[in-house]
Write a structure and sequence with these properties.
This protein has about 500 residues and is mainly α. Helices cover about 70% and strands about 5% of the residues.
């Protein structure tokens, strides 16, 4: 592969594939035992979140999409949502398709399972491509599981990210597709040699770009930034992938125009000025923006697992990085551009909520920013640490991996989101029973000819599964969605059921 004549530090430090380099030295017995324990822990955590899917039930917008899918059919529903709600064509299509079955209650259990598995496979593919063949496939799958658990541990709201389809199809589907796209882009720039493979990567990447941009505006901007950055770098360094990146940029621009120019966007956002939400003054929102983003990053960094994973990566890649990050014994300071771009993009994407709503982004939308944070954190840590310790450091000791790995296994089990899922294993069962009783009550009332129905409140709904509830006011949009789906006049929330 032809290497660039200029700015070669990026290529040599990040993209140069050297088949003689082994990022994972042979493991000793203790490390093998710890890796086995890590595998069990990761599998157990993922199994818990997959098992919780069986207690999952639709809410809010889900009923509106199900009603429109039933009443309008798939294609007329796409036109309706594009004209009256949003230009998120990927979301509109996927959500409608998932709501098409007659029994959405039973079908609702499967999307979280699919998204959890795809998240694992997406991370595995991305990390495998980033390692450029230096990791065996089973180890790539394990690291993909580890990354998935780290992702689950750090997202602001598990329910909105995986279980409520109004949030999961909007944002997590885009996150999964972005992982596969990033892996393809790395593959194109590293080990994809044949013309046929490069052509396949281009068309697959183009389809992924179209799908991601049509999912939500945050992923649109993130994907656009990645494609613009790749195209700019390829042109600046005269890489042989210039046509690939320019073609991808054209695809992204066309998809963005289709999404952003949808009449539904203007109809939806025109209601912001007249809604009843209390918003801070513009000057107050502006003053809160930087502290909010900084505190959010510090909250993510309070997760011990993130530090341990980055520390283990630092040790494993120490010799490899020393051969790539230094010239004539001096650290390549140009590499610091990568962490700077990474953190700048986090602040830029976080500003969207303050600009539009004068509030931080919804927690489901922050999952996109956390994905960006999680992907960029390990390489940023390694680069920054090498810039601090310098080429003369001699305290690298591979024996540090053993205690770090042992502590890492323990720390994965103790994160708040994972611990909440343990508790929700019981709460989920109770929640499922109460939701089944609610559905049975609505159907019984309909058979009696009732059109104004009151349902019992839920007792201690599980935080991992529960995203939102209907209100006591039947005019609330969540109540109206439910009324439209069940084809009744109104529905409202009453007192808890007597026990």
């Amino acid at each position: 592969m032809k290497k660039p004549a200029q700015a070669g530090f990026f290529y040599n430090a990040i993209w140069d594939n050297d088949p003689t380099v082994d990022l994972m030295n042979p493991l000793n017995r203790t490390e093998k035992i710890l890796i086995g324990g890590l595998t069990v822990v990761v599998a157990a955590i993922l199994a818990i979140f997959i098992g919780l899917s069986w207690f999952n039930y639709p809410a809010a917008d889900d009923f509106c999409f199900a009603a429109k899918a039933r009443d309008l059919g798939f294609f007329r529903a796409q036109a309706f949502w594009y004209e009256h709600w949003a230009g998120r064509y990927t979301l509109n299509a996927a959500w409608t398709a998932l709501m098409m079955p007659a029994d959405i209650i039973r079908a609702y259990r499967w999307p979280p399972v699919i998204l959890l598995v795809l998240t694992w496979l997406g991370f595995s593919f991305f990390l495998g491509r980033a390692a450029q063949g230096q990791l065996a496939k089973p180890f790539s799958l394990l690291l993909g599981g580890v990354a998935t658990v780290l992702f689950i541990s750090g997202i602001p709201d598990v329910a909105q990210t995986f279980y409520w389809q109004g949030g999961s199809i909007t944002y997590q589907l885009a996150n999964v597709l972005l992982l596969f796209l990033a892996g393809l882009l790395i593959w194109r720039e590293t080990t994809a040699i044949s013309h046929r493979l490069r052509t396949l990567i281009f068309w697959t990447s183009g389809l992924l770009v179209i799908a991601i941009i049509g999912a939500n505006e945050i992923s649109l901007l993130l994907t656009g930034s990645i494609v613009c950055g790749g195209a700019s770098y390829a042109l600046w360094t005269h890489r042989d992938s210039r046509a690939f990146w320019i073609g991808l940029l054209v695809v992204a621009l066309i998809a963005a125009l289709i999404s952003l120019l949808a009449p539904g966007n203007y109809e939806r956002y025109s209601g912001i000025a007249t809604d009843s939400m209390l918003r801070p003054a513009p000057w107050l929102a502006a003053s809160l923006y930087l502290p909010w983003v900084a505190l959010r990053i510090l909250y993510w960094l309070s997760n011990l697992s993130l530090w341990l994973s980055a520390f283990i990566l630092l040790i494993i890649t120490f010799d490899f990085a020393r051969s790539r990050f230094y010239v004539n014994g001096k650290f390549r300071k140009s590499l610091l551009i990568l962490p700077a771009l990474w953190i700048s993009l986090i602040f830029l994407l976080s500003a969207i909520g303050f600009l539009i709503n004068r509030y931080p982004l919804p927690e489901r939308a922050e999952s996109v920013i956390y994905l960006l944070f999680l992907i960029g954190w390990p390489p940023a840590f390694v680069i920054i640490m090498h810039s601090l310790i310098g080429a003369d450091a001699r305290y690298y000791d591979r024996r540090l991996i053993t205690p770090a790995l042992a502590l890492f296994v323990v720390s994965l089990l103790g994160t708040p989101n994972v611990f909440e899922a343990y508790k929700d294993a019981y709460r989920g069962y109770r929640y499922g029973q109460e939701m089944q009783a609610r559905i049975a009550h609505i159907q019984a009332e309909k058979q009696r000819g009732e059109t104004d129905i009151t349902v019992a409140s839920l007792s201690h709904p599980p935080r991992t599964l529960f995203a939102t509830e209907i209100a006591t006011d039947p005019s609330n949009f969540r109540n109206q969605c439910m009324s439209e789906y069940y084809q009744i006049k109104s529905i409202r929330l009453g007192a808890p059921a007597q026990r």
